[in-house]
Structure formats: structure tokens, C-alpha cells
Amino acid sequence: MSRLLLILALAALVAAFFLFDLDNQLTLEALKQHQADIAGFKADNPWLLAGAFFVFYVLVTALSLPGAAIMTLAAGALFGLWQGFVLVSFASTIGATLAFLVSRFLLQDAVQRRFGDKLKAINAGVARDGAFYLFSLRLVPVFPFFLINILMALTPIRATTFYWVSQLGMVAGTLVYVNAGTQLAAIDSLGGILSPGLLLSFALLGIFPFIARALVRVFQRRRVYRSWTRPRHFDRNLIVIGAGAAGLVSAYIAAAVKAKVTLVEAHKMGGDCLNTGCVPSKALIRSAKLAHQIKHADHYGLEAGAPAFSFKAVMARIHEVIRKIEPHDSIERYTKLGVEVLTGYGRLVDPWTVEIALNDGSIRRLTARSIIIAAGARPLVPELPGLERVGYLTSDTLWDEFAKREQPPRRLLVLGGGPIGCELAQSFARLGSEVTQVELADRLMAREDSDVSRLVESALTHDGVRVLTGHTALRFERRDGRKLMVAEHQGHEVEIEFDDLLLALGRGARLQGYGLEQLGIQTNRTVQTNDYLETLYPNIYAAGDVAGPYQFTHTAAHMAWYATVNALFGNLKRFRVDYSVIPWATFVAPEVARVGLNEQEAREKGIAYEVTRYGLDDLDRAIADGSDEGFIKVLTVPGKDKILGVTIAGEHAGDLIAEYVLAMKQGLGLNKILGTIHIYPTLSEANKYAAGEWKRAHAPERLLSWVGSYHDWRRGKQAGHRMQSGDDARKEVSR
Ligand SMILES: Cc1cc2nc3c(=O)[nH]c(=O)nc-3n(C[C@H](O)[C@H](O)[C@H](O)COP(=O)(O)OP(=O)(O)OC[C@H]3O[C@@H](n4cnc5c(N)ncnc54)[C@H](O)[C@@H]3O)c2cc1C
Questions:
Q1: Ligand 1 atom 15, closest CA
Q2: Which DSSP string do the residues of 199-229 spell out, in sequence order?
Q3: Best of 519, 553, 564 to mutate for ligand 1, by most ligand atoms within 8 A of CB?
Q4: For a Cys staple, 657 with which of 108, 220, 484, 593, CB 3.0–4.6 Å?
Q5: Closest ligand 1 atom to Cα of 346
Q6: Could you tell me where the DSSP H helices lie in 257-381?
Q7: Centroid of ligand 1 to alpha carbon of 507 (angstroms)
Q8: Membrane-crossing residues (predicted)?
Q9: Structure confidence at residue 185 (pLDDT)
């Protein structure tokens, strides 16, 4: 009942506001018109005017009516800077608190009841840091004033806290606005608009949000560091934890700009990519490709046969490749570049100190102004019954384990249909293993479009992989010495027998055991960072797989640049990490490479697009090479040549995509690709032909028909004939 009465009273007040046309009175022009009358009234009744203004301001803000900003300017014009400031400061805070109380009374219970679960994190955040959030919102006027009043009321923040934080948080903004108002009052001619005082006031209005944001940053920094004692001097400018792609690039850049940098690596220099990831997998893929070509040599007019090879030699070659690349990432190289490399396990002790348990058993503590976490990721291992009993391999362990073997695994079960699972399943199948690949989703490589998934599944199946999509692994069993996986498929249990099990279920960021928990650095699958790759502590950064959102060597290196430049020079200029043009490739045969959007992402994001397809079965070089399987698919803005994304499925797709990456990065459209000479006969011509397909579909039909008419005329034909030819041309293009 009381709620209903309150709603009726509020509705009546709002209706009265509009009924008396007060919204139209609260404009700069109206106030300017009445300036002289108001000034006269003020001279006779100064306190009455101040009181009425105060009450009216409270009402406007309490009822969330439009006009508070104009009234703040008016306060400056009518009462001058200090009196205007005091009036507005209290009236706005009281009004805001009334709006807050009304919203709380009417809505809080209902909202919390309805969305309580979803609001848990927000409630906890507000309970912990509500005053600070509110202070930031008040200081940086990004969100409308009235929305903050209404929405904060729905959270558990106390009304008294709301009042005093609002009062304090709005001081700076109020002063700037009231000051601008004092200058507005002084305008009595057009020339007055250009008075230095007014220009300065407006400049202040403009830069105020930036100043406020900088202030918020200072407050934030103070808050996060308040329970730590900052060292007076630092041993290093930068300490980098982890020497994978992200860590190596970070240390390299830091040393190149003469910073004192220490790189800490617990295991092997080069991280996953060199030792257990990209390098060994690509070396394996190369051997498997050759075995495949020998087996299908008749496609090239040669005699086909079962490839004769020693699996041990194949695995030995993989390790040889790693050894050959190792010097690029070695301690010697980095030491020469000016990096101090320590081999040991690094742990964050406080925001500036890393304790390193060195591999020789000693412990060392170093302080640094900035720290970059580049601890990478590790393969995910599911909690499935019986898994430990049957034993399993991951990308971390398979290279050493298989290096001991004389023969490839006889029956290999690959769990996971993502890029790593597909690359390894196809390679081992090509080397003679009986491979079964099991995927939960209804298709392989589910991040790509379904036409890509179909192509990959068909290629894998063709190479002998038994692909089981839509299968959910339930448990593992050992029966009479046999190893089995039981999976669920369409409501039935399916048993799959295997000799070796390879888990390829994705990789999770390394988040435990090196101090993130103790420092309270937030994690949610990855280390949480802002756009500058700063963690909760602005001097601790994260880059590479540990921070995501992509898990590639080149993105790790890309992030490392931002993390390092921000870590070393962020006090001068910070750079937001740019994820706008990120390419990647999966090295199955045919390769799949992508940059930007594919169709499914464009649909999910509601982005309009046009598709242009070019089939590689049309490309001379691909036909000559016997690799004419696949396509290029370009998504463009409808009616324009601006590229939204490209997917290439085909031989060397990972190399071919580079041209589109450059085009997207530099804002070049398909017309520019079409106008670029590509060497004949190369696979790269496919990029130009795809652009040509787009051009053909967007041919300027009317213009072409006129050109046709021009040629007719040049041949001396009649106008009637010309029109006829023009019509034919139109028909041809539209066919
Ligand atoms: C089978 C496979 C194939 C892949 N193929 C490709 C590919 O073709 N192309 C591609 O771009 N990407 C590929 N990747 C992904 C690529 O390997 C990773 O994205 C890349 O290695 C990430 O680099 P990083 O520096 O973030 O982490 P990592 O390379 O994992 O390096 C992190 C390092 O930190 C060290 N470390 C962790 N914690 C500590 C600590 N507390 N103290 C000291 N040191 C610590 C670790 O020992 C590790 O060396 C592949 C991955 C796998 C598994």
C-alpha cells in the first residue's frame, strides 16, 4: 500500500513538472531570456531565491528529471562560484540520495529476489569496494547521474555511505560546471562567447573527465598497494617469469631498450612451442606428409607403396629439429643480448619481489619495478573415472614417450577434436596407426565454419582416422588387459578399445603455485588483465597463454610487446593491446587458416556480411601440384570491398593468409589485392582470384553496358543496336 502511495505521489510530481512546462524552462535559452528578471528578484529576495533554487534542484534530481546539468550552470550564473557550488553540492547529493532511497524502497527486494544468483558477484564486489566504485562513477561522469542513483540502490551499499561518497565524489565536477556557469552569465554579446574566461571554463569541462580518470587511477593504485611495502630501490627494471614465446620476446625487448631484465625459467628455454608444441608437431606433420605422399605416389605418376620407415628415426628427427632451433631460444643467446637468465622456479612474494628457487637448490630474491607473468598453459586433463588406470599421454609427454618406441602406436585414441587433436590424429594415421578421434561436439574444429569442419573431417577420414563426433567420454576401463573408453552417443554407451590414449582437450593457463593466490591477483581460466595487460597490480603484467584470450605463439609474442612497453614506459605512454587482426592456422592437410570473422562469428555478433568463395580446384598451380582441394572464403562489408575476415582451407593456407592479414591490418580492400601483381603460377594467385570473384559479383553493370554501347558506336552500329547490345551485356552479367 505504502509503495503504491509513493508511486502515485511521484507520478503526480513528475506530471506536474511537465504540465507546468518546466522542462522547457530548464534550457539555456529560457534561462538567458529570464536572466534580467531573475537578477532583479534576487536583488530583492536573495535568500528566498536561494531556498527555492535549492528545493527545486533537490526535486529535479530526486525525481530523476532532466535539467540538473543546466541548473548547475544556472547556479554559477545566478549565485557565483562559491555560493552556487555550496547550493548545488548539497542539493544534488540530497536529491541523489532521495532518488536512491526511493529506488531501494520500490525495487531492491524485487531485483535481488529475481536476479539474486546472477548478482552475487556484483553484491560481493559492492560489499567490498562499493564506496570506491561509487566514488569513481561520481568522479568520472561517464554514466548518467540519475542512473547511478537508481542502480546503486539495488546493490547492498549503505545509504549513509552513498550520501558521503556522492557528496565528495561530485565536488570536482560540480566546481567545474558551476564555474562554467559563472562565465556563461557574463556573455552579453556574440563576442563574449570567445572571452578567455569562457573558453577556459569549457576547456576545463572538456578535460575534466581525463583528469578525473587519472585521479581514479591514482586512487586505485593506492588501494591495491596499501597492504604492501614498496622497496625504495629495485634490483631490476623488469623480471619475466617464464621463457616461452611471451617471456622470451618480453626479455628481448627489455634488453634491446637497455633495461635491466631477468628472465626466470623453471623448465626448458623456449617453453611449449619449442619443446612440446608447434615445433615437434610440425616436424611430425612433415614426416607424416611424406609417408602419405609415398603411399599415394601414383597420384604423381610414380609407383605407390607402403612407406618403409623407422618410427624411432621419425621421432629422433623431431628431437633433432628441436635441437636445431634451440639456439634461437638459448640461455647463451639471451645472455649475449643482455638478459640475465636464471633457471629456477619463480614465485611472487609481493608486488615487486620474485623469489626464485634456483635449480642448484639455492634461493634468490630480486625486486623489480615491473614484473611480467608469462607462465604459459598446460594440457587439460579431465576428471574421468579410470583415466589414471589406463594411463594417458598429452602433448607434454608424447614426444619423449614415443621417442622410446620402435613402432607407432597401434591403436591410438585421440580425445578431442580441436586443432591439436586433428593435427596429431591425422599425422599418426598417416604414419600407420589405427586412430580413433572422439569429439563431444557434433563436428571437428567447432570454432571454424561448418564447411571447414566437413572438409577436415573428410580429409581425416580419407587418411584413415575414425572420427566419432557427438561422443561424450564417460569412463575408462581395463578389462582382461585391454584398455577401453566408454562413451555416450545418442543415448547409448559405446566402447572404444585402444592401446594408447592421447588427451587433446585444450590447454589451461598455469595459475597456481607461484604466488597469484597470495597476492589476490584475479584469475578466471586465465590471469585477468585490463586492456594494457596489467593485472590487479598495475606493475604486474601478464602475456601469452597464461593471459589468453588466444593461445598461439605469435599472439604470445604480440602481447609481450604491449606488456613490455607498458611495463617499462607506461608512466609516459600506455598502449592498449590490439586484437583486431589476429590470424591463426591449423596444420592439418589441407591446412586451415583464418583471420578476422568467419560466418558463424559474424552471425553471432549480428554483423552483416557478404561471402565470396574461390575454389582451389580452379587454380593452375594447385592443379599442377595435385593439391587442388579447398577454398578461400572472404567475408566483406555488404556492397564494399572492406574485408571482415578470411578463411582459407588448402595447401599452405597458413602462408597464403598473410596477404589478407596485411590487407586487414593496413585497411586495404579486395580491389587493392586485385590490383597487385601475383606471380604465375603460384598458390598466392588464389588470393587475387578470390578478389576477382568479388569484383565480378560487383561489376558496374550500367557502366559496362555504356562501354558496350561505346564499342558498338566505334564499330559504326546504330543506336537501336547499341541499346540491344547493352541489354545483352546486362543479362550476361546478371546470369
Ligand atoms: C601440440 C601443440 C601444437 C601447437 N602448435 C602451434 C602452432 O602451430 N602455432 C602456434 O602459434 N601455436 C601453437 N601451439 C601453442 C603455442 O605452443 C603456445 O601458444 C605458446 O607456446 C605460448 O607461449 P607462452 O610463452 O605463453 O607459454 P609457454 O610456451 O607455455 O611458456 C611458459 C614457460 O613458463 C615456464 N614457467 C611456468 N611457471 C613458471 C614459474 N613459476 N617460474 C619459472 N618458469 C615458469 C614454463 O616452464 C614454460 O617454459 C601449440 C601448442 C601445442 C601444445
A1: 552
A2: HHHHHHHHHHHHHHHHHHHHHHHHHHHTTSP
A3: 553
A4: 593
A5: 42
A6: 271-275, 278-295, 311-325, 331-337
A7: 10
A8: 54-78, 85-107, 132-154, 161-178, 198-216, 237-257
A9: 67
Helix (H) or strand (E) holding 426: helix 419-430
Lowest mean pLDDT among 5-19, 59-73, 533-547, 658-672: 5-19
CA distance 158 to 166: 12
> H or E segment at 731?
helix 719-734
Using the mean position of ligand 1's atoms as its centre, give its distance from the Cα of residue 306 in Å: 36
Please provide residue 607's backbone torsions phi and psi, each rounded to the nearest 5 degrees: -95, 125
Helix (H), strand (E), coil (C) string for 353-407: EEEEEECCCCEEEEEEEEEEECCCEEECCCCCCCHHHHCCECCCCHHHHHHCCCC
Q: Compute the distance between CA of residue 692 and CA of residue 670 in angstroms, rounded to an integer.
A: 8
**Atom 2 of ligand 1: nearest residue by CA position:** 277
Span from the CA of 18 to the centroid of ligand 1 (angstroms): 64
Asked whether the beta carbons of 407 and 496 are under 8 A apart, the reply is no
> Residue with the nearest Cα to atom 47 of ligand 1?
267
Q: pLDDT by residue (tens digit) across 39-65?
A: 788 888 888 999 999 999 999 999 988
Q: What sign does the CA torsion over 349, 353, 356, 357 have?
A: negative
What are phi and psi for residue 302, nearest 5 degrees? -105, 175
Q: What is the pLDDT of residues 689-722, one digit of tens each?
A: 999 999 999 998 999 999 999 999 999 876 555 4
> CB of 173 within 8 A of CB of 212?
yes
Q: Using alpha carbons only, what angle is made at residue 21 by residues 50 and 80, rounded to the nearest 5 degrees? A: 25
Reduced to 3 states (helix: H, G, I; strand: E, B; else coil), residue 413 is strand
Q: Is the pLDDT of residue 514 over 80?
A: yes
Full-model pTM: 0.78
Quick one: pLDDT band at residue 640, thresholds 50, 70, 90?
very high
From ligand 1's centre to the CA of 278, what distance in Å?
A: 9
Which positions ≥6 away from 695 have C-beta within 8 Å?
670, 671, 674
CA distance 491 to 99: 55
Residue nearest to atom 7 of ligand 1 (CA): 278
User: How big is the chain, counted in residues?
Assistant: 735
Other C-beta atoms within 10 Å of 265: how many? 27
546 CB-contact burial (10 Å; exposed 0-12 / middle 13-18 / buried 19+): buried
